[in-house]
Amino acid sequence: MDKFNKLSGVAAPMPITNVDTDMIIPKQFLKTIKRTGLGVNLFDEMRYKDDGSEVEDFVLNQPAYRDAKILVAGDNFGCGSSREHAPWALMDFGIRCIISTSFADIFYNNCFQNGILPIVLPKADVDKLMDDAERGSNAVVSIDLEAQEIKGPDGGTIKFEIDAFRKHCMLNGLDAIGLTMQQADAIDGFEGKDKAARSWV
Predict the structure, then answer these.
(1) 19-28, 145-154, 169-178, range with the lowest pLDDT
(2) Which of 46, 68, 86, 112 has a beta carbon 3.0–4.6 Å from 24's, enabling a disulfide?
(3) CA 1 – CA 23 distance, rounded (Å)
């Protein structure tokens, strides 16, 4: 998993509540087990018309937000089924941070396992950042995970809270597999002793 320390980029506003995982990546795109290639179908039913052409007024189709790295979202983002393809699609599109007042638990956990930083803030702070994001290509927001700070286009700073263990994992690029591999020597040692003690296994 890629390390996350500092991020600076355009923030796209998506003031929709209860965005579920089927909206993020519709079920017909769940056949793959690859983490790449899903970005083109992110928010597929909102981004494209039936003929495959783009919906011009959808936020991520607008020129100012095509390269957005941050999403400022409505309440209860990522609800619905527990598909890990949702953070895969966001990551593949280029979204590395999502800011909202709340997230569905499973989606929230999946984000951390896939290098996306989900930040929970009070509604007043999210409203301020949503307003900032409406500025289009001028909506450059900076995230400093180490300092736990968000800086808006005007230089204002918002502090955010994050679990210390999750912060450590993000800063060091550690998902569940990475954490396990840190104990490789201990695992090898145990397996060696177990094999000697139970050679018939």
Answers:
(1) 169-178
(2) 86
(3) 25
- Specify the amino acid at residue 91: M
Amino acid present at 176: A
Which position has the token pair 């996306």? 116
Q: Which of 117, 109, 65 is nearest to 91 (CA)?
A: 117
Average pLDDT, whole number, for the chain? 92
Give the total residue count for the chain.
Answer: 201
Distance CA 106, CA 196 (A): 41
* CA 113/CA 173 separation, integer angstroms: 9
| CB contact at 8 A, 5 and 172 | no
Q: What is the three-state SS of the chain?
A: CCCCCEEEEEEEEECCCCCEHHHHCCHHHCCCCCCCCCHHHCCHHHHECCCCCECCCCHHHCHHHCCCCEEEECCCECECCCCCHHHHHHHHHCCCEEEECCECHHHHHHHHHCCCEEEECCHHHHHHHHHHHCCHHHCEEEEECCCCEEECCCCCEEECCCCHHHHHHHHHCCCHHHHHHCCHHHHHHHHHHHHHHCCCC
Torsion angles phi and psi, residue 54, rounded to 5: -75, 145
What is the tens place of the pLDDT at every residue in 14-59? 999 999 999 999 999 998 888 889 999 999 999 999 999 999 999 9
